[in-house]
Amino acid sequence: MGASGRVRTGLRWTGAEVVALRQGWHVLGQRRLGESLQRSWTAIYMRARQDGLPLGIPQGCVAIKVAARKLGIDRRTLVKELARAEVLVRRAYSSPRRKGIGTTQRSQRSYVEWDTAREVAEAWLQTETVRSAALRRGIQPDMLRGWLAKAGVVQVGTVRGVARRVPSDVIDRVVTEHRPRQQAAQAA
Fold this sequence. Notes:
The chain is 52% helix and 12% strand.
């Protein structure tokens, strides 16, 4: 869509547009791709088919929704953790389908490489919130938070209500260091 918000029609594709299509394919959403090329989704889809660009989810990749279900974690959590790990999330496009008169239903799914999604989820599963870690170990959450702050693992004065996750092995190390001190203080 141009500056006027209109889609250019009936124009041949330039070499620069084809390069932009190939670079933006599976990276940009349908709307952003259409805006950058000033073409309708139907025109973009037809040119992609003509150039042999892949449409579905490639082999070795999986839709984020499916990955989250297979990994047993919430989809929003997986998306957040993928972003935190700076994993490139790509988009699979479908053909433009008519839905009613004059409207087009677009379907797009976000996908990632399965191995990458599994690694990110496994890393997340190796962490715990400070509160759940403290309760599981029989320690007051504020005490564990203080120990972790002294060890430089969490910041002092972190925002309440935000569940910070810390690797379980780090929590175990910090608790092991402080438990004898705590027991000695209680005995005295």
